[in-house]
Amino acid sequence: VVYNNFSDLPPKIYDFVIVGGGTAGNVVANRLTENPKTSVLVLEAGGTNIDAFQLDVPFFSDIFKFQYDWNFTTTVQPGLNNRSTFLLRGFVLGGSSSVNGMFYTRGSADDYDRWAKVTKDDGWSWDNLQPFIAKNEKWEPPADRHNTMGQFNPSVHSLTGVNAVSLSGFSQSIDPMIFKAVDELGGIFNFNEDYNSGNPLGFGWLQSTISTEGRRSSSATSYLAPKYIKRKNLDVLLHARASRVLPSVSKSSSSGYAFHTVEFAQDLDGPLLQVNASKEVILSAGVIGSPHILLNSGIGDSDELSKIGIKSLVDLPSVGKNLTDQPVVANEFLVNSNRTTDDILRNATLLNKVYTEFNKTGMGPLVVTGGNQISFFRANESLTDKFGDPSSGRNSPHLEMFTGNGFFGIPPSTGHFLTLGTAVVSPASRGFLTINTTDPFANPLINPGYLTSPFDIAAMREGIRIMFQYLSAPVWDGYVLSQFGDFANITATSPDDVLDEYIRNSAGSSAHPVGTAAMSANDADYGVVDPDLRVKRVEGLRVIDSSVFPFVTSAHTQAPTYVIAERAAALVRAAWV
Ligand SMILES: Cc1cc2nc3c(=O)[nH]c(=O)nc-3n(C[C@H](O)[C@H](O)[C@H](O)COP(=O)(O)OP(=O)(O)OC[C@H]3O[C@@H](n4cnc5c(N)ncnc54)[C@H](O)[C@@H]3O)c2cc1C
């Protein structure tokens, strides 16, 4: 049952209280309540009262996201020519899965094998996670029911999971050109039938968390679908923003503390309320929310906490550290075509027409998120020889290039565009999150650390040069007219300092931050949670969300977050249920 007011909740002690009804939190809530004897309360800071138009229509996910995100203050970024940047997060039931770009990318097999190695838990390896990938994914035909033969490998997909995944349901005018260029060029531009097989390198058809009806599949629409949310043992309280977890005495934990109580507020000026969990509190408030709650609660670097007047209960210096995001640059080209997505956003009559089509049929240009392809590349060995290799292995990319059949974001008033975005998906840079006040509802301070490692800026330069190499394919002659904006004077042979200036003026977040409450081996002297995602040195508290990634996967982060949540739910069930 979904509640808006604490006073309406039934007077009972829940077995588990999950903080955050986002991507991971809803998976855990769903799986734990499969057992009718287990009761779960989810506390979600956001609501559900967001315009369904903008939540459901795939095309708008990246355009209107700013309206729904909790724009945390970030410190000015020295690496980005002193610009401030925002880290976007979903602030609504479903969390970031309700507002994200819906790309479904698992990363490479090596990414997970590295997790297994650093945690000394083989359960996190690619092979051992396959059942959890399958429990999450429900492969569906694309909205336009086109023939998908050769566009994906069915043997690496699951038809039986909860969260819908499909290929693009609308073919775009540039699709044939994208793959013609691949044929013309060969080499690193090889066609990859399925980048989700564990070997992502090359060019493939994009897979997205979109249903056959052309709708967004978020953790709210899938894991909290009506058949699940009606369970008597599953309650969700909206507009409930947790401030702290509160300690009690523990005889079994090395810190002497257990955390079974969550303090929260429904109205930031209103009273602080409390709920208890008889078994565990699970933090699933995301890469910003979870470490923020830990720090507010006195769990973090004891020196840093003491300095701002917070009583340190558990000295875990890794809380908030290791923040890893993937910097991205959207490179814009003016093109000789009016069959791009730009006019949809500029012409109200056209938008109305395609929206009516979408509403009636679940088809048309609104069932794509901008582009239909994705590609992944290794950086040249000279870079990894010089700076070391931050990737997880030889089959893992350092770079992504995505294609957009139009401008990335709101287009200028004239012109038709092709976007070729470049991102460093295996970055070496690390940022951090901290707090500077005892007010638990003040925004945390975030420094994403983009491009602070020399590898990352060199890799981004290489990504841009790879993009120019790709555009040298004959198929683009006559289609691409010129370059746009700050990018206008950049060439493949621009000197490094010119490229660096462009990159530092243009790069931003790909919205994939992870790692601020990272898992590590039981005997490691760093890390925040153990391989079972229990907060180290305390009793009764786990973190299950994207903050536990020890390293970012070399791709977008929702699929791995779902996989973490599926396995974590099984670990919790094994411990208790
Ligand atoms: C705009 C955007 C675009 C993206 N595009 C893609 C993409 O195309 N493909 C991809 O794979 N990944 C994408 N991502 C990243 C991906 O969606 C996230 O990595 C993933 O969803 C994170 O899941 P999570 O469970 O860690 O956190 P979230 O899903 O963000 O869930 C956290 C939840 O906790 C709630 N919360 C936070 N603080 C509190 C508190 N104090 N008390 C109570 N509740 C709280 C939030 O409201 C939220 O519901 C994108 C993300 C964004 C924001």
Provide structural commentary.
With 577 residues, this protein is α/β, with parallel strands linked by helices. The protein has 2 domains: 1-102 and 218-321 and 513-577, FAD/NAD(P)-binding domain, CATH 3.50.50; 103-215 and 327-426 and 452-506, Glucose Oxidase, domain 3 (2-Layer Sandwich). It is 25% helix and 18% strand. The protein has 14 helices and 22 strands. Strands 1, 2, 3, 8, 9, 10, 11 and 22 form an 8-stranded mixed beta sheet that branches. Strands 6, 14, 15, 16, 17, 20 and 21 form a 7-stranded antiparallel beta sheet that branches. Helix 8 links the parallel strand 12 (299-300) and strand 13 (314-315). Helix 1 runs parallel beside helix 14, helix 4 (126-136) packs across helix 14 and helix 12 crosses helix 13. The radius of gyration is 23 Å and the shape is globular. The two termini are 21 Å apart. The model is unreliable at 62-71 (pLDDT under 50). The structure holds flavin-adenine dinucleotide (FAD). Residues 19-24, 43-46, 65, 88-91, 95-97, 99-103, 105, 241-242, 284-287, 289, 293, 511-512, 545-546, 556-559, 561 line the site of flavin-adenine dinucleotide.
Give the low-confidence spans: 62-71
Level-2 CATH architecture of the largest domain: 3-Layer(bba) Sandwich
**In angstroms, what is the radius of gyration?**
23 Å
Quote the distance from N terminus to C terminus: 21 Å
- What's the story with the biggest beta sheet? 8 strands, mixed
CATH topology of the largest domain: FAD/NAD(P)-binding domain
GO molecular function: flavin adenine dinucleotide binding; oxidoreductase activity, acting on CH-OH group of donors
Pfam families: GMC_oxred_C, GMC_oxred_N
Cofactor: FAD
Family: Belongs to the GMC oxidoreductase family.
